[in-house]
């Protein structure tokens, strides 16, 4: 009987990471998870048999060369890190430490193992800033806040380890992932978590601007499949944009969820549209999204109880939570910097 391939999933109890664990188990992998449980939940992976998935609840910055978690590892899927715009503006030291230095700890543990076939890094489309659309991989990089900068510098470290040490790597720049198990706690952030809690409470959806802004929403299982293909492919040293290639408006999301709306001010530094050009990932990896936006929203609504304990946001609490955002990224502040 041949040995199962071994995959380490950092952030494997989190949103995308747990969907990655599901896919790898289905593909016959031995999966090892490392997660600090700051954003992840044990419940996201506890349905797997222990002989398929083992987990260590610690920070990736605890990893060192020779760490037993990486012994005989074949693949590493690196999702661990911290997200959200406002906290990154308020706590840049922690973001740079977790997302850049944390990535370096993962790279060194993987390099020391000596058995790695591929490491795939979860990068972010936020590195493009106010991008032209559809956005290709060669679009200029212009991070607008520390979260975006930290994710891009993590990506740069990944490719540096490829160039200097020959580590086999790829990166996937995620556009707007959504799906079951997305984070329910912490800072004001992704529109789905905000709206789902508001739907449960039967309060109006807080729509930013006029709701015509669109996002390239891609379902979590499709995201995991993109990472899997980036891992097992022959390609190396490549960055791939990954979205559905079919932007959906916030108004469309409201229409699918059903309910009343209240409008809040448009925010500086946010693009009107995110739109991934997925030509490269489709051509080189054979990846295409399978879950339509309508189907994805339906899956989430069927599991809406997951968001029962999430914060319930209203215009006043959002205004307070995003005060730093407006102060740091307003056009007036931008003009002072130029």
From TrEMBL:
PANTHER family: DTDP-D-GLUCOSE 4,6-DEHYDRATASE-RELATED
Domain NAD(P)-binding: residue ranges: 9-299
Keywords carried by this UniProt record: Isomerase
InterPro entries, alphabetized: NAD(P)-bd_dom, NAD(P)-bd_dom_sf
Entry EC no(s): 5.1.3.2
GO molecular function, one term: UDP-glucose 4-epimerase activity
Protein name: UDP-glucose 4-epimerase
């Amino acid at each position: 009987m041949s040995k199962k391939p071994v995959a380490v999933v950092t952030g494997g109890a989190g949103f995308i990471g747990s969907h990655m664990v599901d896919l790898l188990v289905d593909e016959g992998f031995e999966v090892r998870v490392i997660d600090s449980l700051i954003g992840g939940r044990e419940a996201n992976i506890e349905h797997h048999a222990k002989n398929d998935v083992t987990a260590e609840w610690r920070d990736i910055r605890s990893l060192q060369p020779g760490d037993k978690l990486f012994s005989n590892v074949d693949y590493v899927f690196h999702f661990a890190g911290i997200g959200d715009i406002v906290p990154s503006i308020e706590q840049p030291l922690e973001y740079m430490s977790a997302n850049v230095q944390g990535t370096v700890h993962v790279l060194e543990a993987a390099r020391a193992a000596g058995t790695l076939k591929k490491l795939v890094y979860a990068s972010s489309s936020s590195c493009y800033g106010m991008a032209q659309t559809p956005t290709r991989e060669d679009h200029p990089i212009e991070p607008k806040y520390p979260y975006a900068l930290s994710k891009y510098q993590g990506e740069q470290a990944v490719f540096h380890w490829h160039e200097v040490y020959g580590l086999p790597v790829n990166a996937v720049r995620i556009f707007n992932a959504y799906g079951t198990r997305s984070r329910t706690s912490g800072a004001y952030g992704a529109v789905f978590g905000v709206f789902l809690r508001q739907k449960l409470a039967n309060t109006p959806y807080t729509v930013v601007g006029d709701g015509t802004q669109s996002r390239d929403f891609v379902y979590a299982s499709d995201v995991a499949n993109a990472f899997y293909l980036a891992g097992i492919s022959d390609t190396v040293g490549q960055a791939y944009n990954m979205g559905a290639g079919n932007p959906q408006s916030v108004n469309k999301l409201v229409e699918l969820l059903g309910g009343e709306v209240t409008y809040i001010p448009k925010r500086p530094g946010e693009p009107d549209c995110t739109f991934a050009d997925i030509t490269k990932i489709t051509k080189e990896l054979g990846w295409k999204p399978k879950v339509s936006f309508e189907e994805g929203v339906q899956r989430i609504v069927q599991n809406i109880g997951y968001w029962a304990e999430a914060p319930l946001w209203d215009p006043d609490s959002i205004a307070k939570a995003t005060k730093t955002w407006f102060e740091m990224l307003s056009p007036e502040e931008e003009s002072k910097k130029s």
